[in-house]
Inverse folding.
């Protein structure tokens, strides 16, 4: 019998291999596949299964500012409603301020209600093109904002 706790599926692999010695696995598929994978995991109880097997699950998700704010807030709210796993919240100011209808996203009630599940937040600040060049946004510094 194969013990699934000893398997590791790297993002580039096809068949499970032994996991790294530290047992940490990161699955990073970007925004295109995130919704699909989350739907599959929720529908099939994957998080519960992994937790039963002794794994700690932490999901990292993004709330973007500007035109993507509403969609990314809805996605974060859905994630919080559909799972009980803790998360790390990335706040991305690259496309605009972190606001919804003129109000700061960080003051939203859903974040306050989920504060015990949010392990931390990371703010990706925007930098001016005049100071940092044409691609100043891509060279932004990250800073850990902390817990709610």
């Amino acid at each position: 019998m194969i013990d699934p706790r000893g398997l590791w599926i790297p993002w580039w692999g096809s068949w499970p291999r032994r996991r790294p010695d530290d047992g940490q696995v990161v699955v990073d598929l970007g925004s295109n596949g995130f919704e699909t994978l989350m739907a599959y995991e929720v529908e099939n109880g994957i998080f519960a299964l992994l937790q039963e097997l002794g794994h700690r699950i932490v999901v990292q998700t993004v709330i973007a500012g500007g035109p993507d704010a509403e969609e990314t807030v809805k996605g974060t709210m859905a994630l919080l409603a559909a799972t009980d796993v803790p998360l790390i919240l990335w706040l991305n100011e690259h496309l605009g301020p972190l606001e919804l209808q003129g109000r700061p996203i960080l003051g939203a009630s859903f974040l306050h209600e989920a504060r015990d599940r949010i392990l931390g937040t990371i703010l990706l600040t925007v930098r001016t093109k005049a100071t940092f060049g044409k691609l100043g946004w891509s060279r932004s510094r990250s800073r850990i904002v902390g817990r709610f």
